[in-house]
Structures are given as C-alpha cells and as structure tokens.
Amino acid sequence: MTNLVEFDENTKTFHLHNDLISYIFQVEEGGLLSHLYFGKRVKQYHGLMKYQRADRGFSGNLPGSLDRTFSPDTLLQEYSSSGIDDYRTPAVIVRQADGSYSSRFQFDSYEIQAGKPMLDGLPSAFTENDSEAQTLIVTLRDEVTQMKLDLLYTIYEDRALVTRSVKVENQSDNEVFLKKIASMQIDFPNQKFDVINLPGAHASERQMERSRLNRGLRSFESRRGSTSHQMNNFIALTSPDATEDQGDVYGFSLIYSGNFKFEVERDPIQQTRVVAGINDYNFSWKLKAHETFQTPEAVMVYSPTGLNGMSQTFHHLIKERIVRSRFQNMDRPILVNNWEATFMDFTEDQLKPIVDDAKKLGIEMFVLDDGWFGHRDDDNSSLGDWYVDKRKFPDGLRHFVDYVHDQGLKFGLWFEPEMISFDSDLYREHPDYLMQVPNRAPSPSRNEYLLDLTREDVRENIINQVEKVLRENAVDYVKWDMNRHLSDIYSQALPADQQGEVYHRYVLGLYAMLEKLTADFPDILFEGCSGGGGRFDMGITYYMPQTWTSDNTDAVARQRIQYATSLVYPPSVMTAHVSVAPNQQTGRITSLETRATCAMSAIFGYELDLTQMSAEEQAEVKKQVEWYKSVRHLIQFGDFYRLTSPFEDNGCAWMFVSPDQNEVVVDTFQTMSSAQPLSTITKLVNLDPNKQYQDLETKKIYGGDELMYMGFFNPLYHHDYASKKYHFKALNRH
Description:
Number of helices: 12
Largest sheet: 10 strands, antiparallel
C-alpha cells in the first residue's frame, strides 16, 4: 500500500495524504506541534508555512527563552494545553495533584500503524482491512506531571477526511482530574470564514444557520446529556463565497451521542481555532494513577467543491464505515406506524384492519408504537415495565405478531428503555434505579424520569426485559425512543469526587446496552429516536442504521429539516413518514402527493390510519408504494445532492443519482403560490454530459449537458405547497 503518512526526520514534519487531501503539521520549538496545512493534496511540503515569528505585546514566550518572537499564544497549534502562555481556548485542562491547572505537553514520539484501531467502549469509523487506511499516533508528554497524550490521526486512502481522537494516560502515582479533554483541535491562519451550524428545537430540528466569523469565541454545544434537538454536533467553516457546488468547506462532526462542545475562536491577529469534543460543562473525570481515558472520535472533512462535496464525503463515510449492521446496504422496508392513527388507545382487534390495508397497499411492515406494555394508557405510567398489557392483547403479543407475519408483513415494536415511570413495578421494586440527587425531588419531563445507565445492574435489568420480549415475539424491527433529556445528574454508584463523570458514563452505559442488544439480535433492524431527531448523530448510527428525523411530519417543515440534516447525514439513515392533513403538528394542509414526495426522499413510511382513507387516496398510496419500490435503492443508497435551498428560496430541490450516472430522481417543491409567479430553473449536477437521459413520465430525451448547464423551468403552480418528481434514465448506458 502507498504510504499515507510520512515523517520528515530533518524538518520534523508529519504529512498525511492521499490523492484528495493533505494534512501537515510539524514539531516546533519547545516540543509544541505546529499546524501547517489542511486542504487539497500537495505532493511535498517545502516549508512555505513555517511559523512567522514576531514580537507581539502580551504574548508570552517559552520558559527560559529570551526570544520574544516565539509565543505559544500566536503559534498555530495541533493540540494546546492550559497555563503555557496560550490565552486562547485550550484543548485540554488537567487539575493536577497539587491543585494547579497547568500542563505543558511536548512531543515525545510517534508511531504509524496500518489500518485503524477501534476505540474502547466508543463507536468509531472502521476499516474493512488494514490496507485502506493508516493511523498516526503522536505521543505528547508532560514531564513534570507524568501525563501522556496519544493523538490519533487516521487517513483513508480514498476519502477526503481525517479522523482524530485522544487517549490520555496518567503515568504518575497521583490521581488527577480531567476538566476538559477535546477530541481535536485545528488552527487556521488569517483567512475569512463563515460558520454553519445546525440549531433547532423539538419538531424543528437542524435549522441551518450561516454567519460571518468575527473575532472572539463562539461555542456550539449541548448540555442536555444528548446531542439534542437544540444543536447538532456538527459545524462547518466555509470560504465566504462557498455555495453548494463551489468554494472551500471544512466540516467537523463527532461520533458521539452526549454533551458536546464546538468552540471557534478568532484571535486578535485573525487566526481561527476550532476545538471539539466532550462538553466541559460539569465535566470532571478522576484519572487514577496509571489509568487511561479515551475521547470520542472527531471527523474532519475538507471539500474544495462546496457543501455538496463535503456532504458526499460524510455520506459515504457514514454509509460505508459507520453503519456496521447487516442492513448497511440492504433496502429498508416501507412501514406503517400506528402512533398518529391510534396513539395509546387501541386493542388488537382495532389494529388488525390497519394491517389488512397495509398488505393490500403493498406496505411491508407494521410498527406498533407506544402503549403496548404495562398498563400504559397515557404517558404517566409503565416505563420500565417491558411486559405485554393483557388488556390490549389478551392472547399475548405473539398472537398479534403472528397475524402480522401471516399477512406477509414484518413486525416492529417501540421501546423507551432509558426511562422509568413512578407508576411502574420497576420503580416500586427498585426506586434506587432512578437518577436523582440525594435529598432533592427529581424533575419530571414529559411525565417520565431517568434510569441511571451508569450502573451495570440497571442496564442488565432493562436488557433482560427487552431481550425477553424480542425473543418471545419474533420482532423484526425496534424503534428505540428517548423522550426527555438528562437532569438530576447524580449516580449512587459513584463517590462524590466522581459525580462529574455521570454525563459521559451515561453515554458509555447506553453504548454498552446497544452493543449487546445489536450483537444478540443481528437480524433486527434498529431505529433510533429521541422525540424525533433529538439524538441524531453518528454515535447512534453506528448501532442503529436509521433514525427518526423529526416528530414533525409536516411536508413543508420537513423540507427544511431534511435539507439541513443532509449536510452531514445521508438519506439512508433518515426516516420520513406520510401523515394526515391537516398536519397534527402544524395544522397545515398539504396534498397527499407533496407529503409523499417529501417522505420518499428518505426511508419511507406512513403514520396514519389507512382505514380512514378514501378509495381514491388508497389507490394513490398504492401507486406511491409501487413507485418508491422501483427507485428505493437509488434513493437510499445513491448519491444525494441539494440543488436549491428552502432556507433561501420559495421551496427547494434535490436529486439522487446512481454511481454510474445512469439513473436520476429529482424532487422539486414550491412553498407559496403568487399572482405573478417568478419563473425558476432547476439545474442538475453530476450527470454524464455525453449521455442522453429519458424522462420516464413524458418519454422526452435530454442531454446530460442540457440538464446540468441549462436546466429546466419549474412548473407555474396556482396553489401552495406543490411538488413534482422526475425520474430519468440514461439511454446510452456504459
């Protein structure tokens, strides 16, 4: 294999490279690592980006040095620590045994390994063989405190990205406390940037925002115990002129599902620092003598071809090297979920007609949502009691599951395993399983409370209950929900000086549960959910190959949610359903066609009462199901490109294209109509300009160059919330 990582002994320079990118840094004076470059591939580095020395007022210098032109405060660094005259936000803060917060990590050694190591207890990107990637491990040491940092860098042979993480080892005989430990840092020289982030709220997740990066420190974070609806663990830095298809873009994301923080600081001389990792909010990790701590993995992407180029790199990594279940490349089933049809008010006999209609319409799976367990008629009870409610299923759940299977459908089941109700057998038997601060009443959220997943006995209880249900009832699919965020942060299993570990230990406990369940049930398709898209991240995707994108099923709102989500995540991990009109979240009335066009841009399903639809509506649903099946693999696993933005335009457009450029699906949407409508054009991308493409509806033929360079006029609609889908196939395929 070609060397992907090289070290120049003379210049002390590391160069990670493939045909797409180079990532270069150097051992500088004082043993500090100086960041030099991340961008398009350069064949060889000749010292052009050597640190420019200057005497800058109030920027301190190296210990024992009279050279006022070298300062850690202005050096572009790879990984900075606190207390060494670098006044910018640091990557690591350690409270030492003597009470100080000062560290000085200096270069010690390096190692280059074939392949990519897995991270203990944490999800991470993987390799299929050692020949597709190389990993550089750079060791830094603090000689005074005997702390060791291993900086892990992995570069793949054919991906425009570098993954990074940090392993800390306390090699002293004293205990220390990690107060902050980031997964990555990168410093950029003076250049103008915009920053893109994905804030939101419940039922309004990942609302793309873009702003100019000015001097000062900005943070994008979650302190809710999970990645949250309120902020996704992703940011991008872009050149000001970057668009979907041109300009430099640097994307950063974490393979992690808990509290996170991205800090972006522009210093007084216009240099930019990005630090990303576990949020240091209420974080304090006791590292005993000779113990280690591993950070989550960060993914750093570079694209010279705009946001779509960045997204393609993320999409392929997620589809090919994050999702690891047997469903990785498998077409996902079209389902109907009973939640918005029945909520918790149902019996087996009331559900069977929905199953019957699903079979008739070609739908492939029935999913039983909340309300099947304990004595659950509302959200005030039964979480933690994972046994079947005999009032609703007098012959047992398996009787109903067999009915679903006999109709030729798969069967899915909803769980919320991380939560507990006061009104539950589990709480009455084990009140200590509840996460709560001593002598304080815990705070409810959505009428539920949190189980202490930091404890192995709590996890084992829930795993045993869930596995019993899965084994006894031949379940094909699990929807794993989390309908509140973390509060009352305290674990009875930890001493007082380790309560700052609870947030992270909760996530590690969750991962341990998911590791066991997905290993024990490899043939079950798991879907993540957190009140919709409140825990939509690559950490969850490692265990569950798809995630419910939002509780908001309104097609107009979903265009913005799905568009922004696709900045990082491919359609193959997003689920989207057709629901009723007026929509139950927004009250908006949209056509069945528009609702389906939006939902068919991801993993497709229905969330309504099929039995209440008219004969005409059912006939339309049947056609939708047939059409989606014909293009399912293309939509779920083809290359996805955004064309026009719902954040900027009166609607949006996006497309799916096969890797061989022979098949294309395009979806266009218009939000509001007008008495004097504007003529708008949709231009496609990534087609073969030399091929002829036939519109399968009109049978008309167009050149790939026409579709890309000229485009076509969008229809002039005289009603709101319109949509149209196009399906092209190449005639001269090769």
